[in-house]
Amino acid sequence: MYSSSAKTMARGSPRVLMNVDWDLAISSFFIRLQGDLKDNLVGIVIPEGEVYESNVLVIVKKRDLDTVSRILRIAGEVEDMFGGRIIISPYIAHEGEENVIKAFKEASRGGS
């Protein structure tokens, strides 16, 4: 079952993607995560800055060593696709980590 933060993550937040390397890279990262993690992926949150020294939150149903390794591998592969111009530094959280999800969501809205 999704946590309340995960369920409301997609509501009420405008999404704007521009044709710039970061937006293309994060879109590619998300698509590749969906294909690899399938139902284990709850979603991602992209803050305006860094939170816990990370620039993207990856929320999963089950966080284990295999899942973490797969996410980090995909992040590295996407970085390589962009010639190292992009750095994807994921924070990997279980869907029940309400405080972490809240911190990223607040940062994605500029602290509102």
Keywords summarizing the entry:
112 residues, alpha+beta, Beta Polymerase, domain 2, three-stranded mixed sheet, 4 helices, globular
Distance between the termini: 27 Å
Helical residues, percent: 40-55%
What's the number of extended β-strand segments? 3
Strand residue content: 5-15%
- Which parts are unreliable, with pLDDT below 50 for 5 consecutive residues or more? 1-9
> What's the shape?
globular
Strand/helix succession: HHEEHEH
Whole-number tally of structural domains: 1
Outline the biggest β-sheet: 3 strands, mixed
What is the CATH C level class, in words? Answer: Alpha Beta
Query: What is the helix tally?
Result: 4
User: What would you call the structural class?
Assistant: alpha+beta
Strand order of the largest sheet: 1-2-3
Structure, described:
- With 112 residues, the protein is of the alpha+beta class.
- It has one domain (4-8, 21-108): Beta Polymerase, domain 2 (2-Layer Sandwich), CATH 3.30.460.
- 45% of the residues lie in helices and 13% in strands.
- Helix 2 (21-37) packs antiparallel against helix 3.
- The longest helix has 17 residues, at 21-37.
- The protein is globular, with a radius of gyration of 13 Å.
Spell out the blueprint of helices and strands:
Blueprint: H1 4-8, H2 21-37, E1 41-45, E2 56-60, H3 65-81, E3 90-94, H4 98-108
